[in-house]
Amino acid sequence: MKIADTEEELIAPEIKEPESGLKNFIRRNISLRLVIQIYVVAVMLFAAWQFYGFYEAVQGYTSFAPERPAVVEGFLPIAAIVAFKAMFVTGEIDPVHPAGLVILLIVLLTGWIFRRALCSWICPIGTLSEYLGKLGKKLMGRNFNIPKWLDIPLLILKYALFLYVIRAFIFLPAEYAASFMQLPYYTVSDVKMFELFLNLGTRSLAFIGVLMLLSFLFKNFWCRYLCPYGALVGLLGVFSPFVLKKNSETCINCGRCNKVCPSKVNVQGKKSLVISTECTGCASCVAECPKANTLEFKFLGIIPVKPLIFSAGFLVAFFGLIVLAKVTGYWESTATLYDYQMLYNMLPSRGF
Ligand code: SF4
Ligand code: SF4
Questions:
Q1: Out of 57, 160, 271, 292, which residue is the most buried by the measure of CB atoms under 10 Å away?
Q2: Is the pLDDT assigned to residue 91 strictly greater than 60?
Q3: What is the 269 CA–ligand 2 centroid distance (Å)?
């Protein structure tokens, strides 16, 4: 394996010129990613404002009830998991919180095909974590690194917790899941969750503050060590039909791929396939590699795929499936405002 010893070697004629438009593409891609991230955050903030109006109407504080934004069900992962399990008995998509289940199914499908693209393009918590890290770097001049002796145990802990949830899902009797969905709490779980966030105590706020501080100090802290959704799509993405391939014959071991990778994947150290539960498929390493055709995305390991096609495929699949769910009636809940008011009043005034 040839190793670059000098700076001259890195810019020697055999080294690829920036591929036609690739750098430009990455620049465009990153700015498109930013636009999508801002769009998703704006949708979430608008949904929170709308849901607040709905929440007040449920409590009877106002006679005007804005439409309940179904997208809030994306924050009910436990309800979605239960509904997924119940689907094995009923064979139906839950009509009370269909959007939550649809979002879970989209996460599973796109996570398998497009790895953790969801984390870098869509997830608002991932966006917050990313920009806290960038702010930390700007203000402190750098982000700190978690030492290796702690990095691996923290990753193991994340996947151990995730596997515990998977185990609970597997052993949860489907009949029990179906009967849980008949409880009043299940229908108003979005309102109860919202109420919980509106009434966070000092300890909860301190906990959130600590998480934000960790994301400020350590790049990608939330996504790398804590997020259960990240763990799910990360594991599924290992089986993605899009593989990142490295040609060790032409690699000059310059280390640029490792330096640019936001997920700290050791691309340089891989022999052929770059397989990692942390890879978001962002293609930064592909763009940064100075040797032509050394790092490439390949469909089924054979057909080279431009990063643009990969990203566009993910966005079309993600938003296209949501539109499909809306058009086919698997997005809006069948529960009415009256149902919510009645069931909400049957439960304790605070808590569950
Ligand atoms: S830089 Fe490469 S290895 Fe790192 S997350 Fe992006 S695509 Fe994956
Ligand atoms: S694969 Fe990584 S180490 Fe090898 S040439 Fe490309 S950027 Fe450099």
A1: 57
A2: yes
A3: 9
Structural domain boundaries, residue 206: 28-238+306-346
The number of distinct structural domains making up the chain is: 1
Give the global pTM: 0.83
- 39 in a domain, yes or no? yes
295 CB under 6 A from ligand 2? Answer: yes
Going by C-alpha positions, the residue among 13, 2, 28 that lies closest to residue 287 is 28
Ligand nearest to the CA of 293: 2
Quote the strand ranges of the chain, DSSP E: 242-246, 295-299, 303-305
Please name which ligand lies nearest the alpha carbon of 286: 1
Average pLDDT score over residue span 261-279: 90
CA of 13 to the centre of ligand 2 (A): 16
Q: What are the pLDDT digits (tens) for 295-311?
A: 999 999 889 998 889 98
Among 77, 169, 80, 69, which residue's Cα sits nearest to residue 123?
A: 77
Confirm or reject: Cβ of 294 under 6 Å from ligand 2.
Answer: yes
**pLDDT tens digits for range 135-167:** 999 999 988 888 888 988 988 888 888 888 888
Domain for residue 285, yes or no? Answer: no
